[in-house]
Design a protein that fits this description.
- By secondary structure, this protein is mostly helical.
- The protein has one domain.
- α1 runs antiparallel to α4.
- The protein starts with 6 loop residues before the first helix and ends with a helix.
């Protein structure tokens, strides 16, 4: 298992955090969901610090907006929870190799 604190590592962690966030929202646990959102935002901030992520800034910004969208009164995005999980899963799978 690769435990290096790389961009890949943080993308995998972001996937885990978003999965927890989605589960909390599905259960109606707003407090847990807000805490997950804060941790996800911290991870996004760390990802932006990696030089190799500069080329993916647009993708990171969209992902950040999708995560924050869950807490906005006027939703900008309609995305199924499973679709978001499916998007993030390959990062976790690759990080475990």
């Amino acid at each position: 298992m690769n435990n290096t604190r790389s961009a890949q590592f943080f993308m995998a962690n972001l996937g885990s955090e978003v999965s927890r966030l989605l589960s909390a929202l599905e259960k109606g646990d707003k407090t847990l969901a807000v805490n997950c959102q804060k941790r996800a935002q911290d991870i996004v901030t760390k990802l932006r610090g990696f030089p190799e992520m500069k080329a993916r800034e647009k993708e990171i910004s969209i992902l950040e907006a999708v995560i924050n969208n869950f807490f906005e009164k006027d939703k900008k995005f309609t995305i199924e929870n499973q679709t978001l999980r499916d998007y993030l899963l390959p990062f976790a799978t690759h990080a475990m190799k």
